[in-house]
């Protein structure tokens, strides 16, 4: 659980720092246009800090870290997020500085998105395996309240 809290904390620090970087770089360069740099901090705070705080709560409820798939999720998702926001930051910085970003940055960012998706799939599989089984056996249908009314007690 400490690892999840630490991960959320790191993303909070980097997210806030990236917002400061965006503000100061655009102010220094007198840049008033649109760039991907403006949403890097939002991505880090949402997909990093908030996401891992939610996973921390899910860990408390379902002991997700006891599944071997959890380690795969953790590292694949983090690598995907770092690649994605790294390419966003690079692309945005190049835009602010007046340079063309090129297609390679978009391609690498696409790899980051693919890894994020794979990490999310692994997380959902992990959660599904850790959910408690249904209380009612699958062969026994649920009672229909219209057909099988509850008997009144006197």
TrEMBL record:
It comes from Catenulispora yoronensis. Residues 134-154 are annotated as: Disordered. InterPro entries: DUF2871. Keywords: Membrane, Transmembrane, Transmembrane helix. The lineage of its organism: Bacteria, Bacillati, Actinomycetota, Actinomycetes, Catenulisporales. This is DUF2871 domain-containing protein. The keyword Transmembrane applies. It holds the Pfam family DUF2871. The chain crosses the membrane at residues 43-62, 69-90, 102-128.
């Amino acid at each position: 659980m400490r690892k999840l809290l630490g991960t959320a904390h790191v993303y909070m620090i980097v997210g806030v720092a990236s917002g400061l970087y965006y503000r100061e770089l655009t102010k220094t360069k007198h840049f008033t246009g649109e760039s991907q740099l403006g949403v890097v901090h939002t991505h880090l705070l949402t997909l990093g800090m908030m996401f891992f705080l939610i996973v921390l709560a899910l860990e408390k409820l379902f002991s997700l870290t006891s599944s071997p798939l959890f380690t795969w999720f953790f590292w694949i998702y983090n690598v995907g997020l770092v690649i994605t926001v790294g390419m966003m930051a690079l692309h945005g910085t190049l835009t602010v500085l007046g340079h063309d970003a090129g297609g390679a940055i978009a391609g690498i960012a696409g790899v980051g998105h693919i890894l994020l998706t794979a990490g999310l799939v692994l997380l959902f599989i992990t959660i599904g395996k850790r959910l408690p089984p249904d209380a009612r056996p699958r062969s026994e249908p649920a009672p229909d309240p219209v057909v099988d009314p509850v008997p009144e007690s006197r």
